[in-house]
Model the fold of this input.
Amino acid sequence: MIEYLSSREFLILFVKMIAIFGGVMGALAYTTLVERRIMAFVQMRPGPNRVGPYGLLQPIADGLKFLFKEQTVPGSANVLLYYAAPILSMIPALLSFAVIPFGPELLIADVNVSLLLVFAITSLGVYGIVLGGWASNSKYPLMGAMRSSAQMLSYELSLTLSVVGVLIISNTLSLSELVRSQQGTWLGFLPKWNIFLQPVAFLVYLLSGIAETNRLPFDLAESEQELVAGWHTEYSGMKFAMFFLAEYANMVTVSALATIMFLGGWNGPFMGGPWWLQMVLPTFWFVLKIAGFLFVYMLVRATIPRIRYDQLMYFGWKVLLPLALANILVTSFFVAVL
Amino acid sequence: MIELLFFLFSAVALGSAINVLVQKHVLYSSLSLILLLTAMSGLFVLMQAEFLAVINVIVYAGAIMVLFVFVIMLLNLPPDEGGDDRLRWLKLIGIPMGLFLLFMVGRTVWNVEGTPTAPELSGTAQAIGASLFTDYLLPFELTSLLILIALMGAVVFAKKDL
Amino acid sequence: MIPLNWYLILGAALFLLGMLGFFLKRNIIALLLSVEIMLNAVNLTFVAFSSRNGQISGQIFVFFVLVVAAAEAAVGLALVIAMFRNRETLNVDRSNLLKW
Done:
């Protein structure tokens, strides 16, 4: 094993891990700033622009604030689970980035069931919420945690079923293979993206993804007007920062999966140029598409009102799930006939 | 390298199985069972059954155990008090007899011929799907009926007023 | 390559631990958890034999075991809720009204 650790391929892997992890953490920190600015612009106010030029040092100020805050533990809380819940929320959120292909060579693990692996890891993220709500031993977190985990379980079904249409077309579960099957164009100008073949699946996936990450309009579990702050009411300081980062990491994971499955991943219109440009361009197109999705997330948060919990459950079970199943039926009919 | 991974996963599996039995509060037992399930998924990957490993996590650890944890939290149980005399005698005699049973089973199993007799198996989704939907189609359809029955049964049993 | 009998011994040990838990625990949810440990040990044995014989049927059987475990957990937990609602305790020793 020692000879593997000192070999050249492990060194390249290590550099890739540092690059992806560092890039993802930096992107998460700045996503919080971008969200606050976009919501502020929609609400006709400037947003955070004092700390550094255009507010660019705001995430660093936020990080310092979280580090210096007092860490309180409620008196009758279950201390072991109280400390374990943010960790259990953060680990699955960051682990999915190990199998997402950021470029033709830029992925850490090329597993041939990587799509299902990402779903497995996000389904483990429910435990952080449930345990965080229960360990705080107070009524708002408990109610928020129960609602949130019931919502996440329900929308996981339509999330995974909406993907089956894409799987029928591309015949592979591996994320890097999915991206490669969308290279090239039809008729010279229309890229071979799966969104043109599976529009209904894309819509169902997007809505289930927004519900899965507990974002507006589906965030009744952590709404400010009703539940103080949901399952992370009693958390302060760095533990709250971990929940916060885990939520944004889940958002980025859902967006990354949506671009890989429906929008072509790291494929882009222009891939040539000198060698250093060719190394950077696929990642650039990928990040551009993810940024587009995140923009849609934040616009939706700023404009659409929150829906009630029973309407949310109705929507998940009686609208999205039958739509996903019908999509599978129609897709398999077309694939069998054509 | 692969032996190291096997020992790691089996140590985690055995440790969490023992923890399931030892803990007094049943919530900690179910969390240890989740750890056991992830260790089992690791062992499945070592045996080239990666599709099954991921399905194990999605279905078992991600859905069934969430159901367990929900019920435990909603019922809000106190931790178990210590058993009575009969239980203590049962444990005192039962555990050595169980170890003896393990010794007997292990002695029988130790001589099983271990070298693979067939070409390498790949537990990909294509392989499992090809077999599941052709040879085992009838059991597959019957399991969907089974789940429907279990669903109806669970709804009826948990109702407040029948 | 890991010899087959290591996996079988591990499966036997896990099955034994589940069996001990099933006989020695009094909380009904702990009994259900011990049954899940036993089913997992059986899954491990199935996959070990499937990878040794090169046939995929072992893994198909694991699918069916998984489905049965899910159905049994759902119905078992519904029964636990019904039992708790009537009796306020989850100790199986207290449910002895049918004992002669």
